[in-house]
Inverse folding.
């Protein structure tokens, strides 16, 4: 059975879920109707899991019906949860420790990243009990000048987003800064525009994080410029609408700081219609691109503004 699905409006299902024939480990916080669809489609037991408080379990975990390989910053409780599903677990201590990104496996064989060390390879074979294991060609991946896999860097982005959801803007900004630095080192003839856009987006989100943390109008201004630069390297219409919405919303947040700091009634009256107009414009862009979550957040911000 084929089922089209997204996880809280994120289409990257493999990042947040890992399944075999018996069980599916899923990120925490999914809607009941989404969990029901997974159960019905895959006919498996569902287990909510986080790994070191991260919800990108699909990137950090690889498994078949016999065993599981998990990143080395996993916590004891998560290992116990996996064990309880009847699988042996190997905690991989390797430079390439994002197991889900670097190991593709079923019950018969496995394809692994070519740079995994021999000790890791041996343990993978023993735990997963596969009859055949091969290293995939490096040409199958986009790598940086330091040999990093782009999926590993995306894991850093997801960590940054998790911090952002928790309201930890400083940690989120630092993670986005790390991801931006890594994306800048990638080179690809086919995907260079997309990689460049990712670099500018991470820098923009970094600036937004610091702006939120320190109530800094200058950082919001930098984020606006970076979102605009990212848009120049995007071709997807909906993505361009999302980033345009982010840029406009940043302008509203920047003016809101000035509004909040002002004690002069006349000045507040001057800024209020500008802020409201910008937020309404951002909502329109989000809705046009079908980004419901972002639109709802902007509408909530607008509602709070009207209460001031």
């Amino acid at each position: 059975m084929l089922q089209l699905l997204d996880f809280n409006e994120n289409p990257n299902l493999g990042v947040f879920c890992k399944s075999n024939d018996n069980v599916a480990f899923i990120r925490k916080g999914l809607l009941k109707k989404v969990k029901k669809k997974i159960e019905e489609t895959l006919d498996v037991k569902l287990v909510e899991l986080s790994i070191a408080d991260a919800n990108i379990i699909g990137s950090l975990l690889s498994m078949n019906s016999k065993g599981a390989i998990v990143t080395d910053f996993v916590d004891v409780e998560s290992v116990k949860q996996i064990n309880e599903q009847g699988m042996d677990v190997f905690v991989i201590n390797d430079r390439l420790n994002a197991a889900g990104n670097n190991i593709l496996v079923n019950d018969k064989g496995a394809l692994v990243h070519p740079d995994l060390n021999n000790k890791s390879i041996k343990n993978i074979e023993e735990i997963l009990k596969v009859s055949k294991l091969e290293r995939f060609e490096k040409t199958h991946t986009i790598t940086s000048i330091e040999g990093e896999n782009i999926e590993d860097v995306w894991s850093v982005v997801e960590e940054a987003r998790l911090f952002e959801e928790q309201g930890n803007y400083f940690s989120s900004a630092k993670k986005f800064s790390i991801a931006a630095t890594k994306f800048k080192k990638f080179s690809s003839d086919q995907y260079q525009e997309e990689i460049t856009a990712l670099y500018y987006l991470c820098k923009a989100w970094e600036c937004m994080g610091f702006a939120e943390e320190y109530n800094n109008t200058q950082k919001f201004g930098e984020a606006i410029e970076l979102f605009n630069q990212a848009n120049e390297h995007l071709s997807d219409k909906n993505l361009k609408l999302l980033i345009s919405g982010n840029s406009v919303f940043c302008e509203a947040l920047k003016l809101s700081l000035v509004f909040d700091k002002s004690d002069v009634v006349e000045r507040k009256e001057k800024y209020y219609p500008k802020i409201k107009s910008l937020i309404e414009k951002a909502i329109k862009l989000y809705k046009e691109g079908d980004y419901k979550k972002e639109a709802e957040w902007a509408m909530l911000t607008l509602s709070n503004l009207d209460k001031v």
Q: What stands out?
A: Strands lie at 17-19, 23-26, 45-48, 61-63, 67-71, 88-92, 103-105, 109-112, 132-135. The chain has two domains: 13-140, 150-306. The longest helix spans residues 237-261.
